[in-house]
TrEMBL record, chains A, B, C, D:
This is citrate synthase (unknown stereospecificity). Belongs to the citrate synthase family. It is an enzyme of class 2 (transferase). SUPFAM superfamilies: Citrate synthase. The keyword Transferase applies. The keyword Transferase applies. It comes from Cryptosporangium aurantiacum.
Amino acid sequence: MPEYPTALGASSRHTITLLGQDLANDVMGHVGFGELAFWLATQRRPTPHETRVFEAVLAALADHGFTPTAIVTRLTYLSAPDSVQGALAAGLLGGGSRFLGVTEDCGRFLHDVVVNAEALPTDDEGWDALARETVTAQREAKKLIPGLGHHVHKDGDPRTPRLFAIAAEEGLYGPHLSLFAAIGRVHPEILGKRLPLNGAGVCGAALADLGLPLELLRGFALLARTAGLIGQLAEELRHPVANDVFLSVDLNNRSVAPPIDELKSYGGSHHG
Amino acid sequence: MPEYPTALGASSRHTITLLGQDLANDVMGHVGFGELAFWLATQRRPTPHETRVFEAVLAALADHGFTPTAIVTRLTYLSAPDSVQGALAAGLLGGGSRFLGVTEDCGRFLHDVVVNAEALPTDDEGWDALARETVTAQREAKKLIPGLGHHVHKDGDPRTPRLFAIAAEEGLYGPHLSLFAAIGRVHPEILGKRLPLNGAGVCGAALADLGLPLELLRGFALLARTAGLIGQLAEELRHPVANDVFLSVDLNNRSVAPPIDELKSYGGSHHG
Amino acid sequence: MPEYPTALGASSRHTITLLGQDLANDVMGHVGFGELAFWLATQRRPTPHETRVFEAVLAALADHGFTPTAIVTRLTYLSAPDSVQGALAAGLLGGGSRFLGVTEDCGRFLHDVVVNAEALPTDDEGWDALARETVTAQREAKKLIPGLGHHVHKDGDPRTPRLFAIAAEEGLYGPHLSLFAAIGRVHPEILGKRLPLNGAGVCGAALADLGLPLELLRGFALLARTAGLIGQLAEELRHPVANDVFLSVDLNNRSVAPPIDELKSYGGSHHG
Amino acid sequence: MPEYPTALGASSRHTITLLGQDLANDVMGHVGFGELAFWLATQRRPTPHETRVFEAVLAALADHGFTPTAIVTRLTYLSAPDSVQGALAAGLLGGGSRFLGVTEDCGRFLHDVVVNAEALPTDDEGWDALARETVTAQREAKKLIPGLGHHVHKDGDPRTPRLFAIAAEEGLYGPHLSLFAAIGRVHPEILGKRLPLNGAGVCGAALADLGLPLELLRGFALLARTAGLIGQLAEELRHPVANDVFLSVDLNNRSVAPPIDELKSYGGSHHG
């Protein structure tokens, strides 16, 4: 009979523990929600400094208005108002490679460089040299730098300098943020144009500097977004727009005869 | 062309606002994550008192060990490790009527009584009278009282007195908690047995006293659980158990000939 | 150690069985997909007559153009193209009470009447009498009749007479369809207006006459819709529209100051 | 105002079309469900030969007993019985890279070889030569061959020869199946051991030979699995096991102090 060890929630007739703590007396009323989320993910209680940076990241990622995830949650609630869990889950399912993935991609990308560096730089000049190497290598491999560029904030994403500043204030400006900042300084000389360091990217760098598991960086973006999607549902309850969205698509459908265009890939292209 | 008004996230080339605030300067670094989630759901910034009660509720609901939702998230990650969003979404889909629904059911139940009362009681005696009426009516309708009873914590759920105490400390012990407490006092004389007020129920009462939208009480339980499920995934990365869970079921399957038992309901029972 | 009996799939080193059959030799190549889905749900192989009615229902429910579920699947794929399973799951989550629920609601409604009738009618006159009772009772309870009315097909839903005809051809015009047809005949004299019997409703009646489990009628609608959503994804690959849908919402957002309208329900209304 | 072209479902007051056909008269009662799913995905009506191969693939993939996806659907239904759509969606979310991905991976892998071949072989000898090249290249790149190997059916997967035979009977044994068969013949001389061609792999090869879009091969596996998961839910209604599964895990939890093992990756490893 297998056993399933866990350090998370456990209960007996008279006690409930969470992370080895007495839930009622030592967690409830004492531990903030951001702090708890960090603790659950790392099994280590964060310092107030770490909590402040972590919660700043969650704020940066919570809601970006009518993103596909927000529209999806509202449409799903329109269609299945009996299931709040379904509406939230549907919205989270859009949290993949394209819209929420930059945070994770950027954290992983920076981490790969950091762990493979022979020695970490100790000053800006050193970070700039490492960043030059990194950007040059990506360019030669014809790959993009995760976290660089933004389709709206072309002159700079307001979240980026703010998160650098908060991390510095809290003594948590570590190697990932250092490398990301250096990429921001040196990339124009290599790429021939200046791109902004975007907010999703700096969040990935900050989460990596907090020592959070890289495999779950997307998970923290999803946690932030869950709060945002609840906000979207609450606003939909106050002032519904999902039916208008639905009708704006349905009433502008144009029925055409099949096949509508060619399939881009077609396994059978070699037939006959 | 329809327009879609929103007070949540918005951005232009140089600015990002959230809830009408400057996201970078006035939210990041200043607003905790629990506080922000409350603000997003109500479009009103909570007081520190409200935030403390709200975060105590989230802590109470974040993780209860190997619940079906936790097992589901781990199994889905085992099966599709390429999609963290899918593993979290799958876990949240278990947040329905049975396992996470008590919070919502209890909040709604208490609220129905509170809004239909001619005048709200002003002392314990008055609340006891209203609670007696309420419990008697449910009993006559052969309905259960949401939030009453627990299959493990038969002598009392440790979270319940703690949340009452925190709400009282913060001046947020409102009508829903008052009625719930009174139900706890009077039900034995009507039902003939003493049942504990459970933690999920008191959380619903506290959330209703915070003025959160009743339609979304389940949503807050799901937000708390998202943090818990990230903890489950992080632990699965450290010490995987999902494959053992899977094998413990698959290796103990017993193949039988169909049909395995009768269908409980069968539309065709009147055929022939 | 618990054991888990099942009559579905099972395998050993040299064999694979499904529903007690040799999967490779007796199912593959011999059993159509609709037939198999019926068999899996009932653990009884359907007759060709039953299969034809069942597949007609699935065809009726597979795709209705740019429904919320279709839009959701396309938007989720736009946002997370790495996860086809997420895009399909998100679309299915809209299959709740409002858009796909009529099939289940109608099947259950008819079944309640049928199983509670003292004796089932044997001719149209008898069914009309039972239908009059049923419609009158619903009207007095101020409840709607599931399956009656359609916002587009006001003069009649083309699927309805067709499914009645197919069921009759196959000898599967049972009590649920009989009652539904009678409701179509008698309701104008009671409600004072003529409403069409809609396609989702007649599908529920036909599935109930097939003896399928009422708890899962929504499941068959979801199975049909899965095929439709794959069609939506395939078309999105050929001719993408999801980004235009997203932009049509995002570019027409109107940022307003919070709070945007009052919350419809507000637990805290009794505060202070 | 954007327009959204579609060749799928469309309706007006008196008509409903699907794929340019009159849904009621020309699809319902005439088109089987497997045939319809193929048509929806390709916008081309399959021949009866193609339908038979396609439905054989769906049968092969519909249900494999107590897989993680099946367990997840049952546990989610236990936890949220109010939402059949949630239980099915949760199960499908396990249809990712590990458990259902082989079909897609194998189809794509074979297709890459086929489209990059200068000329396609015309006899077994030619296919064997191409297969030798392919297996050698994978081996040198230290990559696995998708579709090769099975942890249970070590002497051969019964579905594999059967699907080859059905495709041959229907005249649909195309380049993907030819290459896959050749890989089965030649790999032992290169890898030094004989592995079975597994069922998921041969399904991918057959779907590719049917000319279905490679991006959606996983989608067809998910369609098949939807039918299987409805079967799992129907069986759970007849003979529930999910609560026993849950308890078998929960009762065998072993509460340990955090941290439970080290995180495998840890962004902060360079701190300090």
